[in-house]
Amino acid sequence: MNFKNLIYFLVSFIFFFQFPTVGFAQHKKNIETEICNKIFNFEFEYTYQMPQGYLASRFGNIHNASFGGIIKSKKNWLYGMDLSYQFGTEVSNETAQNILINISNSTGTISNSTGSPGMVILGERGFNTFIKAGKLLNLSKNSPNSGVALMIGVGFLSHKINITTPESNVPTLTDELKKGYDRLTMGIAFTQFIGYYFQGKNRMTNFYLGLDIVEGITTNTRGFNYDTRLVDNGSHLDVFIGPKFCWMIPVYLSSRDQDEFIYK
């Protein structure tokens, strides 16, 4: 991911959505100005997460789908909460080769109950939830409900190596034995977001788009890894970074039909 291109894309979005009619409005005698509303938004989010640090040697890039809600106050303060599900199919070659090495045969395969090569699929699964707060920095009087959003949050992070045996006939990888290899990790986490937040005047187009960062202070909850035969109870710093897009469905809490717009 080229972050320079991402920043350029965000800036282009700001100018496209925030200032499309400024030049035209300067020639009108009566300018329609939207008031700043208190709005509750249902959120449907997608984040393309790129693991950093030691996690980059374990997982490839990850998809994160979220659902939540966020309130924008009349003074453009933001308060929200979301629940997220992580899923990915990319596990590093080093992890794939080493984590199951003790139960692999000389050809690198794992035998099923009949002695034939069993099917084993590795991936990533995770869950996280955050309580968030932030500020919307308005850039135009004509769009007081839109601007640059800055948010921070605190919550919970969990992830693991997902081990799947579709045929369910690999005796060395029963559901209980998988726990010795999956590195189930949990802990407190923090998040930061910066991007463009748009509430359309027609109430049909509402979204935000920007850069999302997650840091987790986590521990392997299994405590012991079968492949290394070592205790693993130390703390780790887990970092994910990537672009986030959120589509919002608004419920206006303070709009007044006759005073929805002010004419100057």
Largest beta sheet: strand ordering: 2-3-4-5-6-7-8-11
Mean pLDDT: 87
* Second rung of CATH, namely the architecture: Beta Barrel
Q: How many domains, in number, for the residues?
A: 1
Q: What is the radius of gyration?
A: 24 Å
Low-confidence stretches: 21-32, 257-264
Helices and strands: which structural class? mainly beta
Describe the structure concisely for a colleague.
This protein is mostly beta strands.
Please provide a written account of the structure.
The longest helix has 16 residues, at 3-18. The chain has helices at 3-18, 22-25, 93-99, 175-178, and strands at 32-34, 39-52, 62-72, 77-88, 121-138, 147-164, 185-199, 206-220, 223-225, 230-232, 235-252, 261-263. It starts with a helix and ends with a strand. The radius of gyration is 24 Å and the shape is elongated. The strands form 3 sheets. The protein has an 8-stranded antiparallel barrel. Strands 1-12 form a two-stranded antiparallel ribbon. Strands 9-10 form a two-stranded antiparallel ribbon. Mean pLDDT is 87; it is low at 21-32 and 257-264. The protein has a single domain, classed as Porin. With 264 residues, the protein is mainly beta.
